[in-house]
Amino acid sequence: MEIPRLSQEPPYSYLVMSIQTGEKHFLMSRNVALSPTMLPLDASLILDALNDAVITIDPDMRITYCNRAAERLLLVEALDIAGKPCAEVLRSSACETACALNESLSCGDSVDGRRCTVRRSDGRQIPVSLSTSVLRDAQGATLGGVQIMRDLRQEEALREAALRGTGTQSLVAVSPVMRDLVARLPTIAASSVTVLISGESGTGKEVVAKHLHQASPRAHKPFIAINCAALPDNLLESELFGYKAGAFTDARHDKPGRFALADGGTLFLDEIGDMSPAMQVRLLRVLQERQFEPLGAIQPQSCNVRVIAASNRDLAQEVAEGRFRRDLYYRIAVIPVHIPPLRDRPGDAEALARHFLRTLASDQQAPLPELSDDVVERLRSHHWPGNVRELANAMERAWVLGHGEIDVAHLPGSGLTKTYRRAQTQPVAPTGTSAREQRHAQEAEMLLQALRHHGWNRKATADALGIHKTTLHRQLRKLGLRPPRSGDV
């Protein structure tokens, strides 16, 4: 029996086609069904090797065959269910209202990827995705039908983990754009390909990376993070790849690098856009060869690591301008994930604020404070240049100062003054400017307002925005912003 090559066809179609190719083998009488070998040896071996459950029925909707995956899924024995009505065995949520097998037999069409539940012999309901097709003989007469069922329990568990959040952090998704993002995470988590997470500083790139790890098959292995912008090349190299004793003056013993520590798990490379060209070359080689060499080592060391990278820069633009390697970009951006800024996520600010307060109340075993209507209005209208990190800092401050109810006076910056609001931070760009230039103009205006509000004190501004001072310095250099006089005020 020849199985056609996979193509861009609906799920399970290659299985249906393979069974249709050998259709004359799949119709059996009750007597044959009770024999030890229910199909020719080659077909049985192929079908029993599948992870998906397969059953066939006769025109009277009675089961004529099931593979081993179907036995495991339904907790039944093939010989025990042979000849029984399929509805009696499957007890599916769709048996009475939308039976896919009956639909295929009645209309002659295939059904692909229909979701429903089946009930096992122990009474437990199992979510499945099923596909059905008609079995015909050489003359086109209907011999019966075939149904393939894929167990969705793992997928549902991954989806639930991503939606609820696991570990100490959780994703709050109220806005449609964030709900769509969260809905994609289980599919992304199930693979081991590299992921590039983009978004402004403070949007929660590491939180998303942790969710991808926690909802993946690698969840029982380490999640290791490193900020590529925080270290010079020589330190970054030793941190990533480790070193052997004697590799340099102070190397008195072996030290494993982040790739070694993350073996079997996930390595999160934050701010990868700040990596030097020389380090980009080394990283590209590791990703291509799945091997790395610790400093001072003679032999390369294999690694089984999923890499998730993140950057607050537009790496595609960085590639176009020659500041980031094109080959490395394509290597890390197999699956791109963009996290929009908080100002573009209506409803998320209030939901996140309440989430942070619930966490604080739970940690300190204290009553949950209420948010006044004015605070809710400020949360919705504030521009949030520091994104979720700024919001978290604001809620921590409000938690300390507020008692019972959080009011505007408990918020930082005189209650998140209107100078931060979106309406006040959208400068009119000159006609003919590019989208990138307009974005830079908006960022510059936003930072200027924050700096002026804090008297050009960069540390206070960075704290208010919920970003590191070095990140603020980098943004100022990029946008060409300088104080009205030397030094901080």
Instruction: Return the CATH class of the largest domain.
Output: Alpha Beta
Named at the architecture level, the CATH assignment of the largest domain is 3-Layer(aba) Sandwich
Parts with pLDDT < 50 across at least 5 consecutive residues = 1-41, 162-168, 418-431
Number of strands: 16
Largest sheet: 5 strands, antiparallel
- Taken from the alpha-carbon principal axes, the silhouette is globular
* Radius of gyration, whole Å: 29 Å
Short characterization:
This protein is an alpha/beta fold and 489 residues long. The chain is built from 22 helices and 16 strands. The strands form five sheets. A five-stranded antiparallel beta sheet has the order 2-1-5-4-3, with helices on both faces. Strands 7-10-13-6-14 form a five-stranded parallel beta sheet.
Give a structural overview.
This protein is an alpha/beta fold and 489 residues long. It has four domains: 13-151, Beta-Lactamase; 157-338, Rossmann fold (3-Layer(aba) Sandwich); 342-424, Orthogonal Bundle (Helicase, Ruva Protein, domain 3), CATH 1.10.8; 435-479, Arc Repressor Mutant, subunit A. 42% of the residues lie in helices and 16% in strands. It is built from 22 helices and 16 strands. The chain has helices spanning 13-21, 30-33, 41-48, 68-74, 78-81, 86-90, 100-107, 153-164, 176-189, 205-214, 233-241, 258-261, 277-289, 315-320, 326-332, 348-364, 373-381, 387-401, 412-416, 435-453, 458-465, 469-479, and strands at 53-57, 63-66, 111-119, 125-136, 142-151, 195-198, 223-227, 242-243, 255-256, 266-270, 291-292, 301-302, 306-311, 335-338, 370-371, 405-406. The strands form five sheets. Strands 2-1-5-4-3 form a five-stranded antiparallel beta sheet, with helices on both faces. Strands 7-10-13-6-14 form a five-stranded parallel beta sheet. Strands 8-9 form a two-stranded antiparallel ribbon. Strand 1 and strand 2 (63-66) form a beta hairpin. Helix 8 (153-164) crosses helix 9 and helix 16 packs across helix 18. It starts with 12 loop residues before the first helix and ends in a 10-residue tail after the last helix. The model is unreliable at 1-41, 162-168 and 418-431 (pLDDT under 50).
